[in-house]
Write a structure and sequence with these properties.
The chain has 365 residues and is of the alpha/beta class. It has two domains: 2-163 and 249-290, Bacterial extracellular solute-binding protein, family 7 (D-Maltodextrin-Binding Protein, domain 2), CATH 3.40.190; 167-247 and 304-329, Periplasmic binding protein-like II (D-Maltodextrin-Binding Protein, domain 2, 3-Layer(aba) Sandwich), CATH 3.40.190. The chain contains 14 helices and eleven strands. It has helices spanning 2-25, 29-34, 56-61, 64-67, 88-94, 126-135, 138-148, 188-195, 206-215, 226-232, 259-264, 267-303, 312-329, 333-353; strands at 38-43, 72-77, 99-102, 153-161, 167-169, 183-185, 200-202, 220-221, 240-243, 251-258, 306-309. It has a three-stranded antiparallel sheet. Helix 1 packs antiparallel against helix 12 (267-303), helix 6 (126-135) crosses helix 7 (138-148) and helix 8 crosses helix 13 (312-329). The longest helix has 37 residues, at 267-303. Pfam families: DctP (PF03480). Keywords: Signal.
């Protein structure tokens, strides 16, 4: 029931967004002709063949020309075809390319606060994340992070996906002692948590994970939603899939646009991008939610996967380690600023989230 309430809100945003876009598209021909056409060439960090995770940008690229009256077009380039995924931010900022699609957590080596805008361990689900980003200080802080670090980019939130799985393992994990010494692919701030338990973490691109597991370069992995992990074939090599994804209850994706290009657009072009990006956020979340149940069931019935739910004791240990990581990361002033801002929002939001929704149902047999 909780999911349906949130989907209703997101779908309402999408309907409103499309209404506004239709109005934009019906502007006079003279106004359209007066605009300078802009082609956004967008390299992506994730293959567009990956549902919800990678194809969110296609929602925008397939509609932007029609909805802008032809003044905006977008060409999407698969990972590595134009620039490498880890070069997207720098390339957009310098003007080598005029746009890019990625997730902010990839830039943690450049800006310690960046992962707070992509996925927060034990943090917000999609509903709370969007509330903070859109209706509190989230998006302003997000843009400020890039500005203060000297990046010449404008950021738009372009997608959000549901919780990820917590990891794929060859053997059962019955205590945090079982994690010690494992080599594991892990993303973002969650990797800092896993390191507290002796896990050797690495951030491999999605397309390299299967081969690393197969060759024994890593022992375990997390990556994305069940439907995405299934497409990448992890179930063929490791059969124990753990939930919940405490490290990524929601994950956001960004459309970065070179700021000179953004400032050179007409007000109508900028509004079109802002509104279609919001519609894409709603679509990506709904798409992800729609796919997961069938894929989890298929993993069990067809592929022999065993699903596990972390014990309360292990979740408590993960959370305690996460709070240690937070204290360490707060040495960075901007991380502290963002964390304190979100924490204040979260404290107030809990008055609502703690009583507003029905409990989750038990899993079916």
């Amino acid at each position: 029931m909780k999911v349906s309430h949130k989907l209703f809100g997101l779908i309402s945003v999408a309907m409103f967004s499309l209404f506004v876009l239709t109005a934009c598209a019906n502007e006079t021909e003279e106004e359209t002709v007066a605009e300078t056409p802009v082609e956004l060439k967008v390299p992506v960090a994730f293959g567009t063949n990956l549902p919800s995770l990678g194809d969110g940008i296609l929602y925008i690229s397939e509609r932007i020309e029609s909805l802008s009256g032809g003044s905006l077009t977008m060409t999407v380039y698969e990972p590595g075809k134009l620039v490498a995924a880890n070069e997207i931010l720098d390339s957009v900022s310098t003007g080598k390319i005029n746009a890019g699609y990625a997730t902010a957590g990839y830039w943690v080596g450049k800006m310690p606060a960046a992962p707070l805008f992509s996925a927060v361990p034990f943090g917000p689900d999609a509903a709370e994340y969007l509330a903070w980003l859109y209706y509190d200080d989230g998006m302003d802080l997000y843009q400020q992070m890039y500005d203060d670090a000297g990046y010449n980019v404008h950021v738009l939130l372009a997608a959000i996906i549901p919780p990820e799985t917590s990891g794929w393992f060859a053997d059962e994990i019955n205590s945090t002692d079982d994690l010690d010494g494992l080599r594991m692919r892990f993303f973002g701030l969650g990797a800092e948590v896993m390191q507290k338990f002796g896990v050797q973490t690495s951030l491999l691109p999605g397309g390299e994970i299967f081969a690393a597991l197969e060759k024994g370069a890593i022992d375990a992995t997390e990556f994305s939603l069940p439907v995405v992990d299934q497409r990448l074939g992890f179930h063929k090599l490791v059969k124990h899939n753990y939930f919940p994804g405490w490290h990524q209850q929601a994950t956001t994706f960004e459309l970065l646009i070179n700021k000179d290009v953004w400032n050179g657009m007409s007000e109508r072009q900028r509004m079109t991008l802002e509104v279609i990006a919001k519609a894409s956020v709603a679509d990506s979340f709904a798409h992800g939610e729609a796919l997961e149940g069938a894929e989890i069931k298929r993993n069990v019935t067809e592929f022999g996967v065993t699903n596990h739910y972390w014990s309360d004791e292990m979740l408590a240990e993960y959370k305690a380690a996460w709070l240690e990581v937070v204290e360490e990361q707060k040495a960075d002033p901007f991380f502290k600023k963002v964390w304190d801002d979100f924490s204040a929002f979260d404290e107030e939001y809990k008055y609502w989230s703690s009583i507003g929704y029905l409990p989750r149902p038990e899993p079916p047999n």
